[in-house]
Amino acid sequence: MADRPYDYLSALGARIAIARNELGMSQTKLAEALGISLRAYQSYELGKRSIPVEALVEMHRKFEVDLNWILLGVEAVRMKHDIAALEEFEVALDRYLSDSGTKLKSEKRGAIAARWYRSFLEGKEIAMDDVHTWIELLRE
């Protein structure tokens, strides 16, 4: 994290601007949606002032903005994205099990999916070859 408050505010402002851009909104529209003046909003993006907690909460409520990322620069669980990744993994897992004729008890299959998902959330990508090794170790 930045050492000086100004550095932190600059980084915070940059993340706010990125989030706004990802929402496809102008500064004017987001300021209106948050119930703050355009001038105040612009000062947040420029890193001249810290955005009030109330405005951040409103961004999260209205637009599902990741507040961990806005405030700290680290991502929290991005529910829709993460669930989609888990579903994609489970489809690939089921396809592999079916194609290889491998039978696993549901608890073992669940353990594999849970371990993969935990690693995914921690940012540690697990290669499917490693998952196949897990399957071989758990094969009935």
TrEMBL record:
GO molecular function annotation: DNA binding
All residue ranges annotated as the HTH cro/C1-type domain in the record: 16-70
InterPro entries assigned: Cro/C1-type_HTH, Lambda_DNA-bd_dom_sf
Top-level division of the source organism's lineage: Bacteria
CDD domains listed in its UniProt record: HTH_XRE
SUPFAM superfamilies registered for this protein in UniProt: lambda repressor-like DNA-binding domains
Stored PROSITE patterns: HTH_CROC1 (PS50943)
One Pfam family it belongs to: HTH_3
Name of the featured protein: Helix-turn-helix transcriptional regulator
Organism: Marivita cryptomonadis
